[in-house]
Each structure stands twice: as structure tokens, then as C-alpha cells.
Amino acid sequence: MSRRRPTRGRQVNRGDRLGELFRQIIAEELERIDREELSLVSVTSVEVDGNLSKAVVSVSNLEPAEDDIVLATLGELRPRLQRAVGNQTRVRRVPPFQFLIDDVLRSAERIDDILRGIEPTVDGAAAAVDDDRAETVVGATMDRADDEGAVESE
């Protein structure tokens, strides 16, 4: 009969533990591989099924135009990466890797760009300042912001 170790705090799923371990191993292996296509690539997460049927490896790439090249290169390197994971872990079977581009960083950059274009107005509302438009995003309406010197009735 096997003994179970007591868990402290929150219980961590086996797939989550393996995913983090796989992420570290894959990232280290990609650092060892000297390929131009992978110079701006980082491994953001690995999601492993509980039954080890598949592992989805999410990577971020700072060059969006090269996403297809990066995915093709990772596909070529899949056997080497799976072998590295198998050699450094004690799992019976390394699940097949599926590589995806993680768009979270790009979405965050886009949101930052949009937020940088928002300037506060006199009444505390935020008006977006863009090339061809100026619209109210939060708070007061454009009518109120455009009526300079208009007296409000109480």
C-alpha cells in the first residue's frame, strides 16, 4: 500500500505540476538550440491533460510576421523537445506536444496603446484622442465637453 504525502495549502493538479515542469524543460532546451527563428520566442505555458494524452505548449513570439515560421520550426524540433522532457522527468510516457502562439502579450500591448491614447478631460472623464476621432470613453458626453462657456442649469 502506498503512502500519500500530506498536502499543505491548496491542492495542485498533476497536470498543472507537469505543465510547469515541462515548460521549464522546454524553455531551457530552446535556449540551447541556436536557431535564428527562435531567438525572440519564449514558452509561456504548457497545459497537460491529466491522462497525459496531449500537451499544449503556448509560446509568445515578438515578431508576429514570423509566427508560421516559428510554429514550423517548433514542429521540426518536437522529437528533440519531447526527448529532453522524457530524459529529465519520471513520467512513463511524454504526451505529444501541440504548439500554439500565445496572443496574450500582443493583446495586452494593444490595450496599452489604446489606454495611452486616452487623455483626461476637465470633468474627470477620459476622452480618447486618436488620429481621426475624439470620443468620450468614460464619464461625460461629448456635448458637455464641447460646450465651452455654456452655463448648466440646476
Short recap of the structure:
The protein is of the alpha+beta class.
Question: Can you tell me about this structure?
Answer:
38% of the residues lie in helices and 21% in strands. The chain has 154 residues and is of the alpha+beta class. The chain has two domains: 91 residues, K homology (KH) domain (GMP Synthetase, Chain A, domain 3, 2-Layer Sandwich), CATH 3.30.300.20; 30 residues, no CATH class. The strands form two sheets. A three-stranded mixed beta sheet has the order 1-2-3. A hairpin with a 4-residue loop joins strand 5 and strand 6. Helix 1 crosses helix 2. The C terminus is likely disordered.
Number of helices: 4
Query: What's the mean pLDDT score?
Result: 79
Which strands sit side by side, in order, in the main sheet? 1-2-3
Could you name the CATH homologous superfamily of the largest domain? K homology (KH) domain
Biggest pleated-sheet summary:
3 strands, mixed
Determine and state the CATH class of the largest domain.
Alpha Beta
Total strand segments = 6
